C-alpha cells in the first residue's frame, strides 16, 4: 500500500511540473486549413474553395528561448456561374523568421513574447467572361516586421499547443495590376502602401501544434 501511494505521489508530482524548454530542444509545427462554400440555384452556381498550409521549425538555443522559421502556402479558388462565368484564383507563398521567449505561468502553461520578420508573395488571376471579356492579374510583394505574444501549453514532453493573442506589425507592400480586354488593350498599374497594424486579444486568435524532440 505504501509503495502504491509513493508511485501515485511521484506521478502527481511529475504531472505538476512544467516541462522545461531546455537548450537543444527541436520543435516542428504544422497547420492545415481547408474550406469549401457552395451556393446554387436554378441558373447559377457559386463555389469558393480555400486551402492554406504552414510548416515551421524551431530550435531552443538556450532554456526558454527559441528561434524559428515558418513557411506558408495558400491557394484560393472562386467560380461564379450564371449566364456568364467569372473565375478567380489566388496563390500565395511566404515565410518568416521569429524569436520567442517563454515565461512560466502555472504548471505547464507558459506565456511568450517575441518578434518576427516575414515576406509574402501572392498572385491573383481573374477572368470575366461577360459582354466585355477581361483578364485581370495582380502580383503583390509584402514585407512585415513586428512583435507578438501569446500562450503556450506544453501538453507533454513531445507535444505543445500555442496561440497568438497580441500582435503589432509594420507592413510594406507593392502591388502590380495588369488588365487585358477582348481587344487586347493592355493597362498596367502599381500601388505601394506602408502601415502599422495591431490586433487585440480576440481578433488575432490562432493556434499551432508543436512536436518536440
From TrEMBL:
| Signal sequence bounds | 1-20
Q: Which domain of life is it from?
A: Bacteria
**Which keywords does UniProt give here?**
Signal
A single Pfam family it belongs to is OMP_b-brl
Establish whether keyword Signal is in the entry: yes
Outer membrane protein beta-barrel domain: residues covered: 10-184
Gene3D superfamilies in alphabetical order: 2.40.160.20
**Protein name according to UniProt:** Outer membrane protein beta-barrel domain-containing protein
Amino acid at each position: 500500500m505504501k509503495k502504491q501511494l509513493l508511485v501515485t505521489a511521484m506521478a502527481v508530482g511529475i504531472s505538476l511540473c512544467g516541462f522545461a524548454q531546455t537548450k537543444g530542444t527541436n520543435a516542428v509545427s504544422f497547420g492545415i486549413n481547408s474550406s469549401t462554400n457552395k451556393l446554387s440555384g436554378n441558373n447559377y452556381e457559386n463555389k469558393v474553395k480555400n486551402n492554406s498550409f504552414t510548416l515551421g521549425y524551431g530550435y531552443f538555443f538556450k532554456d526558454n528561448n527559441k528561434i524559428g522559421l515558418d513557411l506558408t502556402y495558400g491557394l484560393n479558388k472562386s467560380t461564379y456561374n450564371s449566364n456568364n462565368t467569372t473565375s478567380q484564383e489566388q496563390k500565395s507563398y511566404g515565410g518568416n523568421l521569429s524569436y520567442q521567449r517563454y515565461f512560466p505561468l502555472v504548471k505547464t502553461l507558459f506565456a511568450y513574447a517575441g518578434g518576427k520578420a516575414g515576406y509574402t508573395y501572392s498572385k491573383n488571376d481573374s477572368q470575366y467572361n461577360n459582354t466585355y471579356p477581361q483578364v485581370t492579374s495582380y502580383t503583390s510583394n509584402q514585407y512585415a516586421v513586428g512583435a507578438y505574444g501569446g500562450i503556450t501549453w506544453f501538453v507533454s514532453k513531445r507535444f505543445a499547443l500555442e496561440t497568438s493573442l497580441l500582435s503589432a506589425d509594420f507592413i510594406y507592400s507593392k502591388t502590380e495590376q495588369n488588365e487585358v480586354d477582348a481587344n487586347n488593350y493592355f493597362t498596367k498599374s502599381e500601388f505601394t502602401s506602408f502601415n502599422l497594424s495591431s490586433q487585440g486579444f480576440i481578433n488575432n486568435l490562432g493556434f499551432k501544434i508543436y512536436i518536440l524532440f
